[in-house]
From TrEMBL:
It comes from the Eukaryota. SMART domains: GAL4 (SM00066). PANTHER family: STEROL UPTAKE CONTROL PROTEIN 2, TRANSCRIPTION FACTOR, PUTATIVE (AFU_ORTHOLOGUE AFUA_6G14150)-RELATED. This is Aflatoxin biosynthesis regulatory protein. One of its GO terms (molecular function) is zinc ion binding.
Length: 313
């Protein structure tokens, strides 16, 4: 009796043949089975894995994973995971900056992914590290995130020209605001910010006035998007879009910049209950900035009152 021929099972057939559990000739799309049945023939394509040469992304993923574990368990068990997260997180900074400085088709998606991880970690760290008895400023963490995210503008500007990059080709129209308009309270709050900015133009100068104006315009845009759909991308994108001068103003504790950031804290609060890393972060940021701001007149007091009310403070 002749020996049986070895059979190698292929898993590369089309989705339709797999669903019907029939052998696919794998010559498609379309394959011969789908042609004869006049079916739409599609093949599953697993997403490409990040290049292992992108150490900054690998370390970022490990840092985020360790921080997530730390956020779900109690101290003292969480402490070792916090330390691990910080160690991996610190390893990402230098190579990430180097990647952004020499952005190319091979590292573009990895750099963009790392920018998102950096943002998430920066928001989550103050609450999670409180388990170690450390007092960490969320405002200062946001400033660090601001600075690191300045590279995202460069990634988008250069990377969008590489049409084969999946992250860019899959993106929806980011500047559509949707059909739902802002509620009157939010609209009034943003108009108060505009009025305060206009009132201070004599003291801050036209350049700083424009920087603040742009930050408010972006805040209004992303607030409108969140009104239509609460999505982390619609909240975090503001951090990447604002000008470096605005970041410097926050670092210098310029009152109007802090007030604008406080209003973004309300937007961040919309993610509370949806993402582990955003839990209580909006409220914490608004609380921190309330302590830093001392309204000098009724107009400032009214501007501060809205985020205070929204966060239940």
């Amino acid at each position: 009796m002749p020996p049986r021929r070895a059979h190698t099972k292929s898993r590369q057939g089309c989705d339709q043949c797999k669903r019907r559990r029939v052998k696919c000739d794998e010559k498609g799309p379309p394959c011969s089975n789908c042609i004869s049945r006049e079916l739409s023939c599609t093949y599953f394509r697993a997403p490409s894995r990040p290049d292992s040469r992108h150490d900054f992304l690998m370390n970022g993923i490990l840092a985020l994973g360790a921080l997530h574990i730390a956020a779900t368990i109690e101290s003292p068990a969480s402490l070792v995971y916090i330390d691990t997260a910080l160690q991996y997180h610190n390893l990402t900074f230098a190579p990430y900056r180097a990647a952004v400085d020499s952005i190319n088709p091979l590292n573009c998606e990895a750099a963009l992914a790392q920018s998102i991880i950096t943002t998430v970690i920066g928001i989550a760290l103050p609450r999670v590290t409180a388990a170690r008895g450390e007092s960490s400023s969320l405002t200062e963490n946001i400033v660090v995130v601001f600075e690191l995210l300045q590279g995202v503008k460069k990634i988008h500007r250069i990377g969008e020209s590489w049409s084969k990059l999946e992250l860019f080709s899959r993106r929806r129209n980011f500047w559509d605001t949707g059909s739902v308009s802002l509620d009157s309270d939010t609209r009034d709050a943003l108009e108060r910010l505009d009025a305060l900015n206009d009132r201070t133009i004599a003291s801050i100068g036209p350049d700083q006035h424009q920087v603040n104006k742009d930050a408010i315009v972006y805040l209004r845009h992303f607030s409108n998007k969140v009104a239509n759909f609460v999505d982390a991308a619609n909240v975090l994108a503001w951090l990447a879009m604002i000008d470096k001068e605005f970041v410097d103003n926050v670092r210098r504790r310029q009152p109007l910049a802090l007030l604008i950031l406080m209003h973004w804290g309300v937007l961040l609060g919309e993610l509370d209950g949806q993402h582990w890393w955003a839990r209580d972060s909006g409220r914490a940021l608004v609380t921190e900035l309330l302590d830093a701001l001392h309204p000098g007149d009724m107009e400032w007091a009214n501007a501060v009152a809205w985020p205070q009310k929204k966060m239940g403070l």
